[in-house]
Amino acid sequence: MLKVNSSGKLIVYATRGLPSRKRLESVQEAAKETAKCLCLDFEMVQFERPVSPIYVYYEENSNGERIPLYCDEGKISGLEEICSTIRNMMFVLSFHPKHPSLAQMRNELLKLS
């Protein structure tokens, strides 16, 4: 596990209600697990809207910009598939000079893949 202070957080955006409950559980668990492995904070944001996709964003502490990492597109996916997608997106973004915190996590992201 990466042993540094939190350099950001993963944020899950989802609607309230039962139609997306099963989808939400998978995405929320995957984001929490990934955040824990990378020593990131985790936040859940729910809003009142009928059925809509569930999103996962990464927010870097240094600039506060929220970067989309995952969208469930209204379908149920497995925990490993969701975790893998989130980590792969973070790995790709780690090469962008605008995201130095992700660059520091690059080796840990590789180990998790």
Describe this protein with a few key phrases.
113 residues, alpha+beta, four-stranded mixed β-sheet, 4 strands, globular
Concise overview:
Helix content is 40%, strand content 24%. It is α+β, with helices and mostly antiparallel strands and 113 residues long.
What does this 3D model show about the protein?
This protein is an alpha+beta fold and 113 residues long. The longest helix is centred in the first third of the chain and has 17 residues, at 21-37. 27% of the residues are buried. Strands 2-1-3-4 form a four-stranded mixed β-sheet, covered by helices on one side. It is built from three helices and four strands; from the N terminus they run E-H-E-E-E-H-H.
Work out the strand percent.
Answer: 15-25%
End-to-end C-alpha gap? 13 Å
Instruction: Give the helix level as a range of percent.
Output: 25-40%
Strands in their spatial order, largest beta sheet: 2-1-3-4
User: What number is the mean pLDDT?
Assistant: 85
Give the uncertain stretches in residue-range form. Answer: none
Give Rg in angstroms.
Answer: 14 Å
Q: Major beta sheet, specifics?
A: 4 strands, mixed
Number of E strands: 4
What overall geometry do the principal axes of the alpha carbons give?
globular
Instruction: Count every helix, treating DSSP H or I runs of 4 or more residues as helices.
Output: 3
SSE sequence, one letter per element: EHEEEHH
| Helical/strand content category | alpha+beta
